[in-house]
Amino acid sequence: MKKYIMTMDEGTTSTRTILIDHDGQIVAQYSKEFEQIFPQPGWVEHDAKEIWEAQKETIKGVLDKAGATLDDIESIGITNQRETTVVWDKTTGEPVYNAIVWQCRRTSDMVDELVTKLDAEGKSDLIPSKTGLKPDAYFSATKINWILDHVDGARDRAKNGELLFGTIDTWLIWNLTGGKVHATDYTNASRTLLFNIHTLEWDDELLELFDIPRAMLPEVKKSCDDYGTYEGIQIAGVAGDQQAAMFGQCCFDKGDVKNTYGTGGFLMMNTGNKPVNSKNGLLTTMAAFTDEPEYALEGSVFVSGAAIQWLRDELKIIDNAPASEEAALSVEDSGGVYVVPAFTGLGAPYWNQDARGMILGLTRGTSRNHIIRATLESLAYQTNDVLGAMIDDLGSAIDDLKVDGGASQNNYLVQFQSDISKIKVVRPKHIESTGIGAAYLAGLHSGFWKDKEELKSHMEIDKEFSPGMSDEEVADKIKGWNKAVECTIRFTE
Ligand code: ADP
Q1: pLDDT band at 330; cut points 50, 70, 90
Q2: CA-CA distance, 455 to 299, in Å (whole number)?
Q3: Which of 18, 82, 180, 383 allows an S-S link to 435, with CB 3.0 to 4.6 Å?
Q4: In angstroms, what is the span from residue 260 Cα to ligand 1's centroid?
Q5: Contact 322 CB / ligand 1 (< 6 Å)
């Protein structure tokens, strides 16, 4: 057996390559940022070729750093920013346009028109019932369409089978295999609005609705599968970032939940072998699985760690993000202050695009530390709202919440989460769950690890947080938060 699994982690702002050893430990990582292209307000693009070049650089970089060679690599795992769309020429490998990034809103009018049309035809449920998603510019389908509409001759070339579509995983696999393999995995396919999560196939009715030729679409495989080879090394694991993080946190069973406190917040719950339709506006999606198909519920918090960046960069009341912990602990409580960081609207379960942030409950005695503490608490309240929606959809209680992402390092935040959600919160030693998850998938397929039980044995816990607040106090605080959110929504009505 060789020494390492190599994960290629394609993020939104950087590309990273990680080496993971047999004990599931990260041995070395190397990353490189790439350009964010903003051709117009609200539009976001990447140069797909730059991503591929950056990838090759980080492969070399990580091997040099670890004093290793490609001979030391057992297999390759890939994880990626989801939904981002690349269309390229099958013969030359040249992208016909820049990659259109998940954040890009250029097709929102297209989506509005489609929704109006479907509503008028009494087919409002067509997209959610097949894909588990809501029609939105965020997903790939309208991005593909935009490229086909705006690049000369692209639609005809696509119909003739001359152009290929892929999310970033697919683009990378194509390049790694020298154009031999055009494939994606179920988790990435389930974010396109074109994939039927019940039949596990590209859906003809949706392809017709979005006017996308089937010939462009990649083959869809399991997250643990054979995706060809790079320099003789098998590409054996592929999953979108959130699903990879869930797998890396060993959320293998129904009811297992993870939350990533990054710039935004991402909750994902394994719902087992059947898709659960959310009554609370959450998305239904595919989980990374090894045997039978597994599904997940997903909910996001638009502003999570970004609220801490705002304290640092705009209010300038902390020097750095970690300093928020000491500031929060320097006061006894939040002094009745609530911060609702609805800077870009409110996500699940409120779904209000127009809401804007608020600070409430100020008194003459309110200090910067109260505001810092209340901002940290807002990350937990927002997470608690989504978690509550998930538990309601699942219809049963859950054991614990696994956390990762930058802000999960903040002990005050995580303890407060445990208190108000009345749940045990578990923080692993390695919070790089995304990269570890993709490595786990590849390593299971190539036989580097035996089974999921072995992976669980690698999970080292850094700290567990148990709820310690009285029921009365929790109820009181949550009541305050609900009122604060209500005021925030009313303000922009
Ligand atoms: P992303 O992958 O979205 O870039 P990360 O997982 O790297 O995000 O997390 C970065 C975010 O976490 C930043 O928004 C930062 O403000 C926040 N953050 C980092 N460390 C802390 C901390 N100790 N306390 C609170 N927030 C933190």
Answers
A1: very high
A2: 26
A3: 18
A4: 10
A5: yes
pTM score of the predicted model: 0.91
Give the residue from 289, 253, 280, 281 showing the smallest Cα distance to 269: 253
Bridge partners (DSSP) listed for residue 358: 340
Q: Which residues, other chains included, contact 376 with Cβ-Cβ below 8 Å and sequence gap of 6+?
A: 308, 324, 325, 328, 410, 412, 413, 416
DSSP strand pairing (229-230 vs 338-340): unpaired
Two tokens, residue 470:
């009285």
Would you say the CB of residue 24 lies under 6 angstroms from ligand 1?
Answer: no
User: 374: which DSSP letter?
Assistant: H
Q: Which residues pair with 402 in a beta bridge?
A: 258, 426
| Max CA distance (Å), the chain | 70
How many angstroms separate the alpha carbon of residue 307 from the centre of ligand 1? Answer: 10
Minimum CA distance residue for ligand 1 atom 22: 322
Cross-strand bridge partners of residue 166: 86
| Whether residue 9 has pLDDT greater than 80 | yes
Tell me the per-residue pLDDT of 288-306, one tens digit each, with 9 for 90 and over: 999 899 999 999 888 899 9
- Ligand 1 centroid – CA 343 distance (Å): 17
- pLDDT at residue 79 greater than cutoff 80: yes
| Ligand 1 site-directed mutation target among 103, 378, 410, 436, most atoms within 8 Å of CB | 410
What's the pLDDT tens digit per position in 125-151?
A: 999 999 999 888 889 999 999 999 999
